[in-house]
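Field log, afternoon session.

UNIT: design team B
ACTIVITY: writing a sequence onto a fixed backbone
BACKBONE:
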């Protein structure tokens, strides 16, 4: 028996304010492509079942475009008659009672099963049972639902548990509504043939258990996530279990550091890197305010014209005054820059140049950001 397990596809996610030729956020399009690539692979592999362990959508009220895309792609699975089972994650679970789950739309597909009402549901087939536990906002209910799972195990069939949670504090994402699986109930894992997890965005087995796996996300939702292990899992359940991770191709995410005291030389080296279509993050360190004034973001970005996006962080020498600045706002930094220049620049001509340059730059920032 072969199962494809994937998770945390976050359809509708967008970021970086970069749009494609159609005017759609490029990162949103990247997430759609990752999902479509996984569906392509599934159709090629022809598994017996496909399971998705939560956060199909990035929000509980996704855009029409995200909904339309999801239905179109899942219809492809229906056309080849592969059963699809999905549970709600914390991102796709409404935070208030009385609000319908977006996953209700999955019920319109004949061969798909969505579990989203914050309680356990058993989905049975001839040779296998899927024990589906969606995200639950009320942690007081979790032990009760786990007891229902335990009493529903049928040892004459294969048993697969689907959950969207953290198994141990290490796997916390520090997001609204996430919950930690109770350690005293981990013995249930040993009664399962496979435990399919969602929420953590990296692929891997959990603890001592050889049958408990996070599939990881299909794309990166943060610039801090540099993992390449994005894709899906193929699980074979026969006399023994075999778990194999398949990566999909992603847009490159690159990070570089430039010492401001050697800016020109290091920037020239950076310009030779292959950054085509990549998301690039650059940290400028060892900065003084006067250096920061002379080094414009445009100078850096002009050296990387083929990058999809360039994100620049500035780290100043005197950490007691200011540490790392990202997307600085002029109203919070102008006085700091000007006072620092006055205190540290002794040459009157250089002082006048830097003061005028600083006022000019902060004036441009005010105009661009709409400050009065």
């Amino acid at each position: 028996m072969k199962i494809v397990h994937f998770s945390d596809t976050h359809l509708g996610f967008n970021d970086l304010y970069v749009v494609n030729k159609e005017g759609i956020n490029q990162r949103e399009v990247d997430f759609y492509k990752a999902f479509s690539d996984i569906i392509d692979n599934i159709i090629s592999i022809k598994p017996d079942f496909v399971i998705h362990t939560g956060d199909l959508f990035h929000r509980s009220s996704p855009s029409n475009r995200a909904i339309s895309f999801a239905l179109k792609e899942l219809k492809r699975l229906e056309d080849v008659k592969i059963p699809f089972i999905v549970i709600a994650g914390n991102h796709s679970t409404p935070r208030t009672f009385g609000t319908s789950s977006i996953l209700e739309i999955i019920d319109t597909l004949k061969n798909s099963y969505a579990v989203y009402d914050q309680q356990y549901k058993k989905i049975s087939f001839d040779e296998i049972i899927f024990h589906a536990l969606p995200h639950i906002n009320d942690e007081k209910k979790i032990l009760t639902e786990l007891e229902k799972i335990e009493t529903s195990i049928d040892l004459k069939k294969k048993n697969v548990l689907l959950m969207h949670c953290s198994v141990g504090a290490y796997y916390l994402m520090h997001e609204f509504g996430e919950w930690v699986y109770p350690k005293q109930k981990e013995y249930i894992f040993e009664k399962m043939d496979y435990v399919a997890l969602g929420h953590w965005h990296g692929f891997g087995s959990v603890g001592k258990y050889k049958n408990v796996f996070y599939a990881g996300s299909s794309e990166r939702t943060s610039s801090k996530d540099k993992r390449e292990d994005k894709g899906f899992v193929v699980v074979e359940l026969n006399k023994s279990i075999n778990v194999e991770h398949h990566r999909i191709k992603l847009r490159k995410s690159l990070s570089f550091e430039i010492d401001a005291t050697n800016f020109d030389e290091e920037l020239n080296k950076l310009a030779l890197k292959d950054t085509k279509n990549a998301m690039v993050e650059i940290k400028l360190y060892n900065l003084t305010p006067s250096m920061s004034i002379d080094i414009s973001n445009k100078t850096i970005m002009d050296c990387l014209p083929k990058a999809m996006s360039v994100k620049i962080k500035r780290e100043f020498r005197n950490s007691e005054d200011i540490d790392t600045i990202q997307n600085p706002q002029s109203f919070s930094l102008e006085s700091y820059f000007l006072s620092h220049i006055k205190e540290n620049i002794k040459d009157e001509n250089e002082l006048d140049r830097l003061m005028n340059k600083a006022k000019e730059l902060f004036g441009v920032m005010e105009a661009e950001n709409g400050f009065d």
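LOG NOTE: Residues 319-323, 327-332, 364-372 have pLDDT under 50 and may be disordered.
NEXT ACTIVITY: expression trials, pending approval
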